[in-house]
Amino acid sequence: MQKIKHVSIFIACLLICLVSSLLFVGCGENNDNKIRLNEVTHSIFYAPLYVAYNLGYFEDEGLDVEIESSSGSDASMTALISGSADIVLVGPEQVVYADGKNNQPVIFGQLTQKDGSFFVSRDDVKDFTLQSLKGTTVIAGRAGGMPAMTLEYIIRNAGLTIGTNVASGEVNLRTDVSFAMIGSEFISSQCEYCTLFEPTATNLQKEGNGYVLNPVGDFSGYLPYTVFAATESYLENHGDNAEKFLKAVYNGYQYIATQSATDAAKALQPSFSGMTIEELEIAVNQYLAIDAWSDDFILTEEAFDTMLDIINTTQGEDLGVTYSPKYTTIVDNSIAEGMAESITE
To answer: Nearest to residue 242, comparing CAs of 339, 128, 98?
Structure first.
C-alpha cells in the first residue's frame, strides 16, 4: 500500500511538472505574439486600425494587440525608445527627429497620406482660398507637429508672411494650443480660423460655432502624415509580428473601402462609444472623399522628400537646424511591399 502511495505521489508530481511546463510555454507564446501599440492620439483619422482591432483581424493573425494613447507624437516616441511600446503610430517627423539614436526608430508602414484636418471659420466664407487667411489668426496645433508644420508650409507657399503666436505677419499662427483643446479654444477666443479633424469639425458647425471649409489636404497634397514605426531591433527580432500587424490594419482599410459607411461606422463604434453612428459615418465619408488613407502603406521617396521640405522650411528654420536623414535609414518598405505583392498575385 505504501509503495502504491509513493507511485501515486510520483505520478502526481510528473503531472504538475508537465502542466507547469505547458503553462510556461503558453505564456511565452502569448508574450511573443503581444504587441504594445502606442498611438499619438485616439482619432477616427486612424479608422483602419480600430476596424482591424474591433473585427478581430489581429486575432486572425495570431496577435494580441494592446493600444495605448499618448498626448502627442513626442510622448509616443519616448515610449518606443524607452521600450514601453513595441510599435508607435506617430507623425513621421518624430522619426526624423530621432535619427541617429541608438536602436534607430524605423518607419515600416504609412497609414495616412494626407492632412486629415479641415479649415473651420467663424464666418461662412464663400470661395475660400489661402489668401482668405490674410489678416487673421489661425489656431494651428502644437509647434513641431505635422498639423502645424503643414499649415505653415502651405501658407508660406501661398506667398503670405507668418507671425507665430504674435500678430507680426499677414497670418498669425497660434501653436500654443494642445490638439485636444483646439475646438474649445476656437469657440472661446476671437480667432477667425482653426483646423480640426472629423467629426469634431462637423459637430462644431452643427452647434453653430463655426463653418467647415476646405480640407487642408486640398492645398498640401499627398504626404506621409501618420506612420507606423518600430525600432531596428524589434523589426529584426519580431519582423513576422510587424508583418502580421500591418496585414491586419490593411484588412481594416479594405473593409472601410469596400463596405458601406454605415457598416464601417458600426465596426468603429466600440472604439468611440461616445459618438453616434451618424457622426462616425460623417468622418468615414469625409476621409474617403479626400483619399486620406494609403492603399498600400508604402512610403515613397518622393513623399519622404516632401515631408523633409516641410520640416526644414518650418521647424528646421525656426531652430536653425537642417534635418537630412537618409530615406533608406529611417524607412523600410519591405513589409508593405511584400504585402502588396501577395495581394496582387
So the answer is: 339
- Placement of cell 462637423 in the chain: 202
Q: How many CB atoms lie within 10 A of CB 220?
A: 20
pTM, two decimal places: 0.85
Alpha carbons 145 and 249: distance in angstroms, whole number: 24
pLDDT of residue 55: 98
Which secondary-structure segment (H or E) carries 173? strand 171-174
* Start-to-end C-alpha separation, the chain: 68
H-helix or E-strand containing 3?
helix 2-32
Long-range residue pairs from 76-84, CB within 8 A, at least 24 positions apart, any chain: 76/38, 76/39, 76/40, 77/105, 79/38, 80/38, 80/105, 80/229, 80/230, 80/231, 81/105, 81/231, 84/36, 84/38
Per the omega criterion (within 30 degrees of 0), is the bond before 199 cis? Answer: yes
What is the C-alpha separation between 255 and 259, in angstroms, rounded?
6
How does strand 117-121 pair with strand 193-197?
A: antiparallel
pLDDT in tens, 7-31: 444 444 434 444 444 443 344 334 6
Written as nine digits, the cell of 153 is 508650409
Q: Return the CATH architecture of domain 117-220.
A: 3-Layer(aba) Sandwich (3.40)
Q: How far is CA 173 from CA 151, 317, 320, 342, in A?
A: 9, 16, 19, 45
Q: Which part of the chain has CATH 3.40.190.10?
A: 33-114+223-344, 117-220
277-287: pLDDT as tens digits: 999 999 999 99
User: What is the DSSP secondary structure assignment for residue 271, as one 8-state letter?
Assistant: G
What is the predicted pLDDT for the residue at 318? 83
Q: Which CATH architecture has domain 33-114+223-344?
A: 3-Layer(aba) Sandwich (3.40)
